[in-house]
C-alpha cells in the first residue's frame, strides 16, 4: 500500500504557526510517528506553498498510488485547479484539515476539494492525518 500525504501552504510552519489552532508539533515529527504506526504501508510526504506544485504532485502520484491524503490548506477554499486535478486522477483522495474549518471564518466553509474527494476529515488536530491514512489501510 503506497500512500502520499500532500500538504499545502503554511503547513510547513506547524509547531510554530498559531499553536492554539494547530498545536506545537512539527509535521515532520508527527509523520515519523505515522510511519511507525503504519509499518505495512509506504507513506510519503510532500509539502508546497505553491499551487502549481501541488497540482503537479497530484498528477504525478494520481495514477499509481493507492491513496492521497490532502490538506490543501487555504487552497482548499480558492483553488479550482486543485479540485480539477483531483477529478482528473484515478487515485482516491481524502481531504483532511487539522482545525474544524466550519468553526472558523465563513470563507473556510467552502471547499473545492470536497466534491471530488473520497471523504473529508475535519477538526481532529494532527490525528486527522491518521484517520485519513486509515481510510486506505
Terminal-residue CA separation: 7 Å
Strand content: 15-25%
Q: Give the number of DSSP strands.
A: 5
Q: If you average the pLDDT, what whole number results?
A: 93
- Look at the helices and sheets and give the structural class: alpha/beta
SS element count, helices: 5
Residues in helix, %: 25-40%
Any idea what the radius of gyration is?
A: 14 Å
Unreliable stretches (pLDDT < 50, length at least 5) are none
Shape: globular
Q: Largest sheet at a glance? A: 5 strands, parallel
Order of helices and strands: EHHEHEHEEH
Strand order of the largest sheet: 2-1-3-4-5
Regarding quaternary structure, what we see is: single chain
Describe the fold and architecture.
By secondary structure, the chain is of the alpha/beta class. It has five helices and five strands, in the order E-H-H-E-H-E-H-E-E-H. Helix 3 (51-61) runs parallel beside helix 4. It starts with a strand and ends with a helix.
Give structural attributes:
five-stranded parallel sheet; globular; single chain; 5 helices; 31% helix; 5 strands; 137 residues; alpha/beta
Amino acid at each position: 500500500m503506497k500512500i502520499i500525504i500532500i500538504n499545502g501552504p503554511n503547513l510547513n510552519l506547524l509547531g510554530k504557526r498559531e499553536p492554539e489552532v494547530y498545536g506545537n508539533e512539527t509535521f515532520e515529527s508527527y509523520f515519523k510517528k505515522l510511519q511507525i504506526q503504519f509499518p505495512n504501508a509506504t507513506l510519503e510526504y510532500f509539502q508546497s506553498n505553491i499551487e502549481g506544485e501541488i497540482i503537479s504532485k497530484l498528477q504525478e502520484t494520481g495514477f499509481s498510488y493507492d491513496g492521497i491524503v490532502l490538506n490543501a490548506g487555504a487552497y482548499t477554499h480558492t483553488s479550482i485547479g486543485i479540485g480539477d486535478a483531483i477529478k482528473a486522477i484515478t487515485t482516491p483522495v481524502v481531504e483532511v484539515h487539522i482545525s474544524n474549518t466550519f468553526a472558523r471564518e465563513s470563507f473556510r466553509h467552502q471547499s473545492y476539494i470536497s466534491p471530488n474527494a473520497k471523504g473529508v476529515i475535519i477538526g481532529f488536530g494532527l490525528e486527522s492525518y491518521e484517520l485519513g491514512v486509515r481510510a486506505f489501510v
